[in-house]
Fold:
Amino acid sequence: MKRLGAVATCCRYRVRLGPSRSATWLTIDRGVGTVTPHKEIDWGANAMTKSDLIQRLAEANPHLYHRDAEVIIAVIFDEIAAALTRGERIELRGFGAFTVKKRAARSGRNPATGESVSVSEKHHTYFRASKQLRDRLNRDEAAATDPAARRDHHPTFA
Structure:
């Protein structure tokens, strides 16, 4: 359950019901005893999770055990996270680049009370897709309508 915040003496939680790809969300107010249904959220049939990535890696490389594929993916993600933590830029040729951007400290407002609050400096990750990836995404859309638009620009995406 994901905590949404406190309302007076009760707590709000958001609960997902159903499979991981598509779900109905409910907001539960403890203390008040109300349950509010929300519209169904469709995560899309094309969404790939970490476990899906591990499964595809294991299937594409039959000489690897599933646990080895898990370790490989975990190491890659850990190294990317460690490099980003150090403030380094990660470039994966033909895919894109991850960078860390800094948001300066600023003065903000509490929307509930209108009170001025200070917001501390924060860092967030930023991903920029490579030209090859953007071309591939756009080529695939164009190929759906125009077969002549389908060309292989890069051997990685053949």
